[in-house]
Write a structure and sequence with these properties.
With 71 residues, the chain is mostly helical. 44% of the residues lie in helices and 0% in strands.
């Protein structure tokens, strides 16, 4: 015996499942850790600071994917 439901119940299920699937998509990707350094109070992040951070990261055996200085 086949169980029949009204069409609006199927539509309601789709309205719940589709956004739930979209919100779950980022969890399918692996971890990509990041390091953010910013100036506090009178400290400014300069190119020298950037070079020091790159050297320290490489000394610890980590190869950065990208290094960006904003602002």
């Amino acid at each position: 015996m086949l169980n029949q439901y009204p069409w609006w119940k199927y539509a309601l299920m789709l309205l719940v499942i589709i956004p739930g699937f979209l919100y779950a998509l980022p969890n399918l990707y692996g971890d990509d850790p990041g390091l953010q350094i910013r100036g506090v109070r009178n400290f400014k992040v300069t190119e020298a600071t950037l070079s020091m951070v790159k050297a320290t990261v490489r000394q610890n055996g980590i190869t950065p994917k990208s290094v960006i200085r904003e602002g």
